[in-house]
Design a protein that fits this description.
This protein is of the alpha/beta class. The chain is elongated. The two termini are 40 Å apart. The structure holds flavin-adenine dinucleotide (FAD).
């Protein structure tokens, strides 16, 4: 039987799009399938490119760890492994060239902004100051925080509250428009020969003994040599359909977007209560909760109130600003906060591109590249071994 495609990628978010783009530019016959499910992460994302910030637990990380500590008393280590921080830094370095390439190939402007003041972690008391100083002492030279006192911070960001003690600054951490990034990848992949079917729900994986041979779409079977699972928060369900264990779970994030404002913030801001970015068209985005509420994509009054309170405490002029929109999305979470990439033991024809969690946007360019390289038999620019799914077999207790 003639195969539908050489590679079928399931999931048209930023990760599936990146993989399809990198495969198409290697002349692979690739088919991207997507059904927009409520809560898909890419279009809910803030678009922060904070490789070191998130890897050391700022941005969404500090909110996530605080919520875990409050709910189950786990004393969590905030700093993610160096191998992942280095992966994120390298991925982040792709954006200047990628932004140009995607514009040229797909005509999509991903609104990559690199002119701002970077990422500021704002501290309001000595405990928070000690927290960043401890993190800073563990960082390699090139990525050290610059510490600013309150006066220096206010000179750069005049709209911030006077209640600050200071800020830790990561100067190379910026932002983009995550929806346009995914759209750019997808359109560029199509321009380079990929096929795309939207509104197509993959209902199962077709497995023959130890080989995945295609996907099921309703009563239709689409065959291929390799299936890439880029189904976001749903990746675990898709894998389970073929008897594979990919421990990804949804982590809800709620977000507030203000109406468009004149220039208010140059930096991306992180505090222990929220993070904030002024987007290209003037809205201030205030994020985000991290909640284990399954596939529930409700927006709750309590969460939105808390985010707004933290934002107003940090940038007082937001007090009387209108809210344009609130929403929530489902991060593809993993227990150790690292992605799940690459093939699985004892099965061929199957590759994970899952578990982007809270850094899937910044990780997308390198994720797409290394997975495409692995699929076509090139040596990946960065080893994917630390991100293989089999790491969970070694520590089954945590994922029972
Ligand atoms: C509120 C919030 C803020 C965030 N902020 C940031 C940030 O600032 N920086 C950052 O780097 N990351 C951020 N993230 C994380 C980032 O958005 C995710 O890691 C990333 O978008 C994951 O991309 P994905 O392609 O794996 O998943 P998704 O974007 O969810 O894409 C998966 C796609 O697959 C589809 N799908 C699922 N199952 C099937 C099926 N069976 N058949 C067909 N299609 C299917 C889904 O509908 C979806 O379209 C944030 C996430 C959230 C929720």
């Amino acid at each position: 039987m003639k195969q539908t495609a050489d590679v079928i990628v399931v999931g048209g978010g930023v990760i599936g799009g990146a993989v399809a783009f990198e495969l198409a530019r290697r002349s692979v016959d690739v088919l991207l399938l997507d059904k927009s499910l409520p809560g898909r992460a890419t279009s809910a994302s803030a678009g922060g490119l904070w490789p070191v910030g998130e890897a050391v637990g700022l941005g969404c990380g500090i909110i996530h760890h605080q919520s875990r500590a409050a709910s189950d008393g786990i004393s969590s280590e905030l700093v993610l492994p160096t191998v992942f921080r280095d992966f994120l830094i390298r991925s982040n370095e792709c954006f200047p060239k990628l932004a140009e390439e995607l514009k040229e190939i797909s005509a999509v402007d991903i609104e990559y902004e690199s002119e701002g003041n970077g990422l500021f972690f704002l501290y309001f008391n000595e405990d928070e100051q000690r927290f960043v100083e401890t993190i800073a002492s563990g960082l390699p030279g090139g990525s050290k925080f610059k510490m600013l006192d309150a006066n220096e911070v206010k000179q750069l960001e005049p709209q911030l509250t006077d209640d600050l003690l200071g800020a830790a600054v990561l100067a190379n951490e910026h932002q983009l428009n995550p929806m346009y990034l995914a759209e750019g990848f997808k359109r560029a992949a199509i321009a380079l020969g990929a096929q795309f079917r939207h509104n197509t729900l993959v209902t199962g994986l077709c497995r023959e003994a130890d080989r995945v041979v295609g996907v099921q779409v309703g009563d239709q079977v689409l065959t291929c040599n390799t299936v890439v699972n880029a189904a976001g928060a749903w990746a675990g369900n898709l894998a389970a359909a073929a008897g594979l264990r990919v421990p990804v779970f949804p982590v809800r994030g709620q977000i507030v977007l203000t109406q468009s404002l004149p220039h208010t913030l140059s930096a991306c801001l992180s505090t222990s209560g929220c993070y904030m970015l002024q987007k290209k068209h003037g809205e201030v985005l205030i994020g985000s909760t991290t909640e284990n509420t399954g596939f529930d994509v409700s927006v709750t009054a309590e969460a939105i109130t808390q985010l707004c309170r933290a934002a107003v405490q940090t940038v007082p002029i937001l007090r009387n600003v209108g809210i344009k929109r609130v929403w929530s999305g489902l991060r593809p979470g993993t227990q150790d906060e690292l992605p799940i990439l690459g093939p699985m033991e004892n099965v061929t024809g199957y590759v994970n591109a899952a578990g982007g969690f809270r850094t899937g946007i910044v990780a997308a360019p390198l994720t797409g590249r290394v997975l495409a390289q692995a699929i076509v038999g090139e040596t990946p620019d960065v080893a994917i071994d630390p991100f293989l799914a089999n790491r969970f077999q070694r520590s089954t207790a945590a994922f029972a």
